[in-house]
């Protein structure tokens, strides 16, 4: 019994030592292969990161270069690069059957002159970029697992999809941008440009600042928008939506869940539709508006510096100015649930 225990302990020490060496070796993986492709005539570039660690850099030449670092040098492990007409695809070679001791990293240098369509997929592993992706036609980034950290991306059309894992981006600019998170986490410091579609079915989305016209749909999870300017149309069927420092116009529909909105100024009308759940609104006392409220059930309350100045519930209709000389109207339609406006 004692011998068996000693053998198990010794085996555990060997395993832990090997794991520690493998982690340390990640930084010292040797360069085993380099592939280069001339990008003349290429308009579509797709990169499949698979389970590797991938770093994207910028190249001053018109040549795309792939440097491959591997703990085991096997030709069958090398990246698969294929070209068809104006499209170039960088895939992943075969991987060991037992990958625990396997380490790999790819460094991809994309020519600065490339301004076509870029698609990046990450099924596991990690992706980071030491450069901005600027002035592309389209950028499509899909994270199904693992983690992706990027600086700034700009294109006519930007698509960010997270089905699991983490995606973190410093800035996004596009004439049209689409963000979808079905699980996992998305964090973007700024989104600017024209029209934006943001969808959260589970997981978390955090956006530091948003400018433009945005349509937000939350069916579950937590959506936090720290600052927003422009038009915002939100539909929350479950989960939570928090919007801070909002300036603009729009609509909020809540069939369940909770919405918190901090309004700094209005540039148009605002509409709230609540069938269940609740909406809490903060606004400065100097912001005037017309209140047009219709309640079938639930309630509408307005508080001024902590004191209640209006309360309506059950079946009721309210139309009255809040503050002097209001320019815009806040519409409230409640079949159930609650709307609370705090002016302070």
Short description:
By secondary structure, the protein is mainly beta. The protein has a domain at about 30-115.
List the helices and strands and how they pair.
Elements: H1 2-25, E1 31-38, E2 44-48, E3 53-59, E4 63-70, E5 80-84, E6 87-91, E7 104-111, E8 117-122, E9 126-129, E10 133-143, E11 147-162, E12 166-181, E13 185-200, E14 204-218, E15 222-236, E16 240-254, E17 258-274, E18 278-283, E19 289-295, E20 299-304, E21 307-313, E22 316-322, E23 329-334, E24 338-343
Parallel strand pairs: 2-6, 2-8, 3-7, 3-9, 8-10, 9-11, 10-11, 11-12, 12-13, 13-14, 14-15, 15-16, 16-17, 17-18, 17-23, 18-24, 19-23, 20-24
Antiparallel strand pairs: 1-4, 4-7, 5-6, 19-22, 20-21
From the alpha-carbon coordinates, what is the Rg to the nearest angstrom? 26 Å
Distance N to C terminus: 73 Å
Largest sheet: 24 strands, mixed
Could you name the ranges where pLDDT drops below 50 across 5 or more consecutive residues? 1-26
The number of helical segments is: 1
Shape: elongated
DSSP summary, beta strand count: 24
The arrangement of helices and strands along the chain is: HEEEEEEEEEEEEEEEEEEEEEEEE
| Beta-strand percentage range | over 45%
Based on helices, strands and strand pairing, what is the structural class? mainly beta
